[in-house]
Amino acid sequence: AADIAPLAGTVVKLLRRSMPEGLKLEVDAGEKPLRAWVDASQLQDALVNMILNARDAKASRVTVRTAPAVLTPERAEELQATPGPCVRIDVADDGQGMDAATRARVFEPFFTTKRHGAGTGLGMSMVYGFVRQSGGAIDIDSALGRGTVVSLWLPVAAGAERADIEVEAAGAERVAGRSLALLVEDDPDVRKVVRRSLIDLGFAVVEAENGTEAMTI
Q1: Last residue of a domain, one of 157, 178, 202
Q2: Domain that holds residue 91
Q3: What backbone phi and psi angles, to 5 degrees, belong to 51?
Q4: Quick one: 96 and 188 in the same domain?
Q5: DSSP secondary structure string, 41-100?
Q6: Which phi-psi region, left, alpha or beta, contains residue 22 (left: φ > 0; alpha: ψ -120 to 50)?
Q7: Which of 24, 147, 150, 180 can pair with 173 through a Cys bridge, CB separation 3.0 to 4.6 Å?
């Protein structure tokens, strides 16, 4: 698992010195740890690609935002992803933006709007591949003259081990006609996000802070 906020901060710090004069590159991350099930080096590469694309879009401001989020069933269906708690990363810029035709092709390998020799056209397709390989989702909100926001939804991880978030659906047990889920998580903020997501998915939820407490339920 990768701790997203400091990783994003490191990338921004490294790239800030190479940004053109007049471009403000900043990071907006909370103080609480946000861990996602991704390869840290691949995520760094993805962030570098997205930030450099924002720079090339003639932006004057680029912001990398990280926050906990929930991918709702409706939104997950739109993005062909799995619903549930996640870490969301936005790379937002106030550059020239994209028209609908460009947005539709932006993840295609070798597609680029840059002048000849200025790019390979592989950047965003590599970002897309990384996100899908990680079990996440990616989306772009952009319009000409309005800038661009590239959003990544990555599977959340509460700690160093996948078992730190343990959700067990007991299929044989029913509460008011719903499946019962046992949620084991020691971080109350993460537990709150996961609980809300499970309820949205139709589960009745029983919570425990750790494995010992869960065994008594």
Answers
A1: 157
A2: 2-157
A3: -65, -40
A4: no
A5: HHHHHHHHHHHHHHHHTT-SEEEEEEEEEEE-HHHHHHHT---EEEEEEEEEE-S----H
A6: left
A7: 180
- Together in a domain, 97 and 46: yes
Please write the tens of the pLDDT for every residue from 179-207: 677 878 776 766 676 777 677 666 777 88
Domain end, chosen from 139, 157, 175, is at 157
* pTM of this structure: 0.68
Tokens of 152: 């990544």
How far from each other are the two terminal CA atoms of the chain, in whole angstroms? 29
* Token couple for 176: 């008011």
Q: Are residues 112 and 34 in the same domain?
A: yes
Q: How far apart are CA 59 and CA 69, in angstroms?
A: 26
* CA distances in angstroms from 180 to 168, 183, 208, listed in the order given: 8, 10, 13
Tally of domains within the chain: 2
